[in-house]
Amino acid sequence: MYSHEERLKAVKLYIKYEHSLAATIQKLGYPSPKALYNWHQEYCENGELRDSSIRGTKFTLKEKKIAVEHYFEYGRNYSRTVRMLGYPGRETLRQWCEELAPEARKIRRSALNYTQEQKKEAVIRLFSRNTSAKKIAEQTGVGRKTLYDWKSDLVGRDFPLTMLKQPIEQTVDTLNSEVDDLQKQVYQLRMEKEILERAAVLIKKETGINPINLTNREKTILVNALRTNFPLKSLFQQLELPKSSYFYHRNQLTLTDKYEEKRLLLTEIFNENDARYGYRRLHAEMKNKGVLLSEKVVRRLMREENLSVRIARKKKYSSYAGEITQAAPNLLQRNFKAEKPNMKWLTDITEFRMPAGKVYLSPIIDCFDGAVVSWTISTELNAKLVNTMFDNAAETLGVNEHPIIHSDRGAHYRWPGWIERIKTSGLTQSMSKKGCSPDNSACEGFFGRLKNEWFYGVSWKDISIDEFMERLDHYIHWYNEKRIKMSLGGISPLQYRRSLGLAA
């Protein structure tokens, strides 16, 4: 209970704040909005507030009825009613309830004593009622909250009350129909889920693949795997597979696979070359081994065996540091064809970034067959990187061999040490235009193949610098000795030179 002074203070502040309940309650910290509203009404009607602490204070019959109705409507809780209205005391309210509603105050027997049938009957009356839930609760002999608790236990808390205002028999039929529909939906979803899972396992498709886009042969494989769990008719409809196509492909699947051995060989070649060969090189390599297949068949077998090449693109490294010395003219003019080895050389530097650090590769490429004549690998980008590479390449030259060596305008190819080595060895220097990578596209192409086939798409997290450099060196040896080039007739650069009698 609040004192007379507290109530009067609240009403005056409420008037001051222009009848703002929220502002008044926020300022004082009391009372409830309902209590403040009632105090203001009393103040406006009587010009003052009744001091309940003075013995003999009387409440009007209207106020008593309001308090009693509030008590029965909101859960029969004395404390809540007093707190919400601001009057009277708990004992006074109990006396009013005994006085104005003696029948409603009779002690009710516990809800635990009701049978399940009695609860169902009360809930049905609640759904099909033409009166208030309060009256139905009183007729049943329980509280309104207890009646709603029975409803939640029997049909669920979220079940709408409006559904059963129609005849109960009709409602039961409707619910049964809805249950049947839900069961069909669950069945459909389970079938779709199993189709996606089997597609991932049996035909190596991603779990998010649309089954409609599968070939009829792949759909037939799925149907055969699921026919024990679902009817054929349902599977045909779900996969949009004609019945005739299913039986045709089912018969075909029973036949011996004429490409069985070739599939194994194709997969073996693909894995031996670390997933770097596309269908053209696989076709050429199969041909070199005496196995004749069309490119179309190779593509199909790769697709069925899930053999795909890693492809990625990243920004290349640039070593341009400004015009240090006078640039050499572009003698190649993008003509990267050579009639014999050691006529035209290309060079550049590329960078590899990995968790353990950075690694730089500096190779010399021969335009005759794309062979890597010489290369150096280092963690430091300095003159030693390119000078050592050049010295090793120069040692492979014959007496009368003086190739053109072409590069971009990077700082490493304009240092005095590099220029002096070219002059001493009798080579001719050539340079691309500034910022024009197509002028050295053959060398850039080598870097692209190297990174797509070997570097990109691989995790280098736990690889040390030394192991990385060793693997890179191994790749370049494989590139020269084993990797086939379609421009050379499907053989490697070293094999090509041997076929022409240019290498031992």
TrEMBL record:
UniProt entry keywords in alphabetical sequence: Coiled coil
Indicate the segments forming the Integrase catalytic domain, all copies. Answer: 337-501
Sample GO molecular function, one term: sequence-specific DNA binding
Q: Please name the SUPFAM superfamilies in this protein's record.
A: Homeodomain-like, Ribonuclease H-like, TrpR-like
**BP GO annotations:** DNA integration; DNA transposition
Which InterPro entries does this UniProt record tie to the protein? Answer: Homeodomain-like_sf (IPR009057), HTH-like_dom (IPR025948), Integrase_cat-core (IPR001584), RNaseH-like_sf (IPR012337), RNaseH_sf (IPR036397), Transpos_IS3 (IPR048020), Transposase_8 (IPR002514), Transposase_IS3/IS150/IS904 (IPR050900)
Q: What does this protein do?
A: Involved in the transposition of the insertion sequence.
Q: What is this protein called?
A: Transposase InsO and inactivated derivatives
This protein's species is Carnobacterium alterfunditum
